[in-house]
Write a structure and sequence with these properties.
Blueprint (H helix, E strand, L loop, with lengths): L8 E3 L8 E3 H27 L5 H10 L12 H13 L3 H23 L5 H10 L15 H20 L4 H17 L5 H12 L10 H24 L2 H10 L9 H28 L11 H24 L15 H9 L5 H27 L6 H6 L3 H13 L8 E4 L1 H10 L5 E4 L11 H7 L1 E6 L27 H8 L3 E8 L10 E8 L14
Parallel strand pairs: 3-4, 3-5
Antiparallel strand pairs: 1-2, 5-7, 6-7
């Protein structure tokens, strides 16, 4: 038996929790409960278990202090957002995690609105609830980075593209241009969508006339207006983000034909693995899939293109270039996948199916939470991200502050070091000192050696030169005979910054449960050009 969408009620015989309840009302209840549980879980759990916010977020936060139009690895939007959050709430980990949840709620709303164009209200809520059973939209969400900021831009772009193309809504083109423009400022992955949109319009006789409409080109103009300052920045700085992307993809790692097979197949398998739990939840709750459509309407074709097109495109590019497909880059691809599966393979569910679906979704969500708890509490072997999350942040920030006070009173003006050590120290201090990443103007163009000589700074590095934190910014292997970290030696530092005050090394210990070896930290202080109240000579 199925309920009649026109009547839209189900009674007690069908196992809903009330004797008689509107399906729409039930959808609202479970949707609201889902939102509360989702936000509370993924905002509070990481704050309780970790000592530090995600390593990418650390870098994003200190970038945001400078409010540039771009940074050497990524475009700027997420850094602007985190800067606003930090200025309002200070260095609050929960505020950072809550920002991630807010971005996801925007994404869920866009998914729900578009799903309502295809499905019943109950199915649309179920499509949203199914998303967090994929790791992309649950345990990776606290990692507030460019893969997260792109999700709402992706979902909104898909929604407004539907409105503009399938419903011929002229104003939707303006919103579409704005979303794509902001998406470009979030992460370049968004450019996949206008590529697919243009291809869809060109290949469809029904929609080709849109290319002659003023509204479409107004949307293009809005997009260009939004991204123009970033494009100017790219040209003036020599396209550093594209250079970093090329290194990350690894297309220059050899011309072996095997890479043109291994990388696309491996990328596809990793994406399928991340979606496996979604398939389990839907099949377990709604039963085996059966094709439901007698023919594909234009809007059905649109949803297929926008959902499966990104996967096909990146796998094809990997096949042609031999470049690697990073699993996290596919984060936004699958926001409409539950909607597509329900449209193609399932009719509106009976009450017993709804309850069974909720059981499967809840069970998989709890299982994911338990695994997260086990990893980040140290019960299971730590993943790389868990190791970074348990870093002794407070001890590092305190040591940087003490180092500066040993030479000069007042707030720390700047920290020089790799992205992790310098960025983490800056995030943990109330004054949020500026970060001169690896004393490299390409990585931190907002500062110079002259700035350091004028204001002074604390310089920190890993004393054992093991390069533990190198991977944050460097994709290449360490050249033979070269140190694994950035530190050039004390003599080189003094040639650049003048006389420095060398302080004793300190040891930063991870929580005992991690079993990780302590980090031995070396420190020097560059005194400011103007005299300090302290007597530096006593420390030499």
């Amino acid at each position: 038996m199925t309920y009649n969408p026109c009547v839209n009620t189900i009674d007690e015989r069908h196992s809903l929790p009330a004797a008689s309840i509107s399906v729409e009302r039930y959808a609202e209840i479970i949707g609201s409960a889902f939102i509360i549980f989702y936000v509370a879980t993924w905002a509070l759990l990481p704050a309780i278990l970790g000592n530090s916010i995600n390593r990418d977020t650390i870098q994003i936060v200190y970038w945001g202090r400078e409010l540039e139009w771009g940074y050497f690895k990524q475009p700027p939007l997420i850094s602007w957002i985190t800067e606003a959050v930090v200025r309002i709430f200070g260095g609050s980990d929960i505020a950072i995690y809550a920002t991630s949840e807010l971005l996801m709620l925007i994404s869920f709303y866009a998914v729900y609105r578009l799903s309502m164009k295809y499905l019943t209200k109950m199915q649309s809520v179920m499509a949203v609830m199914a998303l967090p059973v994929m790791g992309y939209y649950s345990y990776l969400v606290p990692h507030l980075n460019h893969n997260i900021i792109i999700i709402p831009a992706w979902a909104l772009t898909t929604f407004f593209a539907y409105k503009a193309i399938e419903e011929r809504n002229s104003w939707a083109w303006v919103w579409l241009g704005l979303c794509i423009g902001l998406g470009v400022l979030g992460k370049y992955t968004i450019l996949i969508l206008p590529t697919l949109i243009f291809t869809y319009i060109i290949s469809s006789p029904r929609h080709r006339d849109l290319l002659s409409k003023r509204a479409l080109w107004l949307g293009v103009a809005v997009c260009l207006l939004v991204v123009m300052p970033h494009l100017v920045w790219l040209i003036r700085t020599g396209f550093p983000t594209l250079q970093y992307l090329a290194n990350a993809v690894g297309t220059d790692g050899g011309n072996s034909l095997i890479l043109h097979i291994i990388n696309p197949v491996g990328g596809l398998l990793k994406m399928l693995g991340m979606c496996a739990s979604l398939l389990v939840a839907i099949v377990g709750g709604l039963g085996m899939p059966r094709w439901q459509l007698s023919g594909l309407r234009s809007r059905d074709q649109f949803l297929i293109v926008m959902t499966l097109g990104p996967v096909i495109l990146v796998v094809l590019l990997s096949f042609l270039t031999g470049g690697e497909v990073k699993n996290e880059w596919a984060t936004p691809f699958f926001v409409m996948l539950p909607t597509l599966l329900m449209l193609l393979f399932y009719t509106p569910p009976m009450a017993r199916q709804i309850n069974r679906f909720l059981t499967w979704v809840s069970g998989l969500s709890v299982a994911m939470i338990l695994v997260y708890l086990a990893i980040y509490s140290g019960i299971l072997p730590l993943t790389a991200e868990a190791e970074w999350a348990r870093f002794p942040v407070r001890e590092l920030s305190a040591s940087v502050s003490e180092s500066w006070r040993a030479v000069c009173q007042g707030p720390v003006p700047a920290v020089v070091g790799d992205s992790w050590l310098a960025g983490t120290a800056s995030y943990g201090l109330p004054e949020r000192p500026r970060v001169y990443t690896e004393a490299n103007r390409t990585m931190a163009p907002w500062m110079s050696d002259r700035d350091i000589r004028e204001t002074g700074a604390v310089i920190v590095w890993e004393a054992d030169h093991l390069g533990r934190f190198r991977e944050m910014d460097h994709m290449d292997s360490v050249p033979k005979g070269k140190p694994a970290d950035w530190f050039p030696g004390l003599e080189a530092l003094e040639l650049r910054f003048g006389p420095v005050v060398k302080l004793s090394d300190i040891v930063l210990k991870y929580p005992a449960v991690t079993g990780l070896a302590p980090v031995r930290l070396s420190r020097v202080v560059v005194p400011p050009a103007r005299p300090c109240p302290n007597k530096i000579a006593a420390l030499r």
